[in-house]
Amino acid sequence: MQSSSSRSNIPVSRSNEVSCSSSNSSNSSSATFANSREKKKYIEEYNFPFCDEASKYERITKIGQGTFGEVFKAKDKRNPKKYVAMKKILMDNEKEGFPITALREIRILQLLKHENVVNLIEICRTKANASNKYRSTFFLIFDFCEHDLAGLLSNTNVKFSLGEIKKVMQQLLNGLYHIHFNKILHRDMKAANVLITKNGILKLADFGLARAFNEIKNGIPNRYTNRVVTLWYRPPELLLGDRNYGPPVDLWGAGCIMAEMWTRSPIMQGNTEQQQLTLISQLCGSITPEMWPGVENLELYNSMDLPKGQKRKVKERLKPYVKDVTACDLLDKLLILDPSKRITADAALDHNFFWVDPLPSDLSKMLAQHSQSMFEYLAPQRRPGQRPHHHQVFFNQSITKSFIDTGYQDRIF
User: Does the predicted TM-score (pTM) go above 0.85?
Assistant: First the structure.
């Protein structure tokens, strides 16, 4: 009987267990759902006290795009005459929190207040809701600049006089002097990152790869990444794997940009690091320990195929474009292989190039002739034969013939 009685109790006991388990599960699900709903409501209604909504600006058109995200021209709805640039911060790779690279860029921009550095006005965000999966999008808001240098140089109707070229370079070097004085490296110097307002004021822009730097302490070298700077503007020390670098990496880029003021196109357009080093060697001479003491200690020095027996030809190659002797001399000093011998921004500003006639001249009068904004992103795609690549310009034996055949002389002022 006892056995029978205990057996009859088993199903009842199991039934209770299942019932309790089901009840607990249901309660847990309800609690989770309630918590999730409360969290979403909290996020949706949260008010960022120091971060206005992006809806205060009306986006007009896209003016830039790259690995960093997108940049838009927009106007302030409360002041329709005020235009800004909105740079979207990429959040796709962030599961939670804010991208550390964006935090670094914001901190650097807050530090660098100078006429020749782009001005960060504020940070804005979109409102989090169901349509964006409760994830806000953040924007950096900058003063709007009408042009970038790459866009201006791509337009054959834009002609820079020698005095105007001097003004561009003087402002660019002033900007570099300021950021280097504040112990910041830009690390992405190129014509597309040099903005110019309609009033002719130049602004260094896109500090997405910028970082603070330190002088070597206690003999311990820095270990910065060398995967920075767009390939065509990347200096030889980075291409050879240097991780203990400083301001000279930005001055190499300044030299490439300066040459571009006359050639109207990047002067060394390699497709790979190896090809870029070959082009540099053909223009600046062979990379050897005699010309550059200590280069043999760089990580990739023995891995790369470095051309031998190349003579330095910077002045010789650029002379057909750059008629001014002092300009050629400054270019020669900016494009020195050994970074320890490369001219600094401070010394470059004292170079004769800026202190002999014609003196640096205001850009606003020339820019007033062009009402349309010019950005690299908006420039027409290059057609085959419209503009030759670097090796055609500097390393083609029939250099003069290539000018005639392609109409390239129209792009040289």
Answer: no
